[in-house]
Amino acid sequence: MKTLEELKKIREEARKTVDIRKNKKGTRIVVGMATCGISAGARPVLKALLEEVQKRNLEDVVVTQTGCIGVCRLEPIVEVYRPNEEKVTYVEMTPEKAKRVIVEHIVNGNVVNEYTIGAYED
Ligand code: FES
């Protein structure tokens, strides 16, 4: 696993890329990074999202972090906001799942239903 310093660097680079596009309305991917999120593995998820977005040179996609999202037991949690669409909440994320979300949801526009919070609710 990467150190915190390395993650900071990745984040800074992502931020630079994002700044240029700040004025456009695009997709926002938010990772819950409260204590529970981090202990559940949110850092590698955040890193995978950033890497995948950069690798694919996705324009208008911003990856940010937030604190508590409110559902500790389902962390790591990733929320996707796309213009004119309902927010999608992905739970129990892993770096592999995160990459799949980028490809299927962000690139191709298909929500990965089996990872959403809806799939976990009775
Ligand atoms: S502290 Fe875990 S979701 Fe808020």
From TrEMBL:
Presence of the UniProt keyword Metal-binding in the record: yes
GO molecular function: iron-sulfur cluster binding; metal ion binding
Top-rank taxon: Bacteria
Protein name, as recorded: Ferredoxin
Keyword Metal-binding: yes
Gene3D superfamilies membership: Glutaredoxin
Cross-referenced InterPro entries: Thioredoxin-like_sf (IPR036249)
Alphabetic keyword roster: Iron, Iron-sulfur, Metal-binding
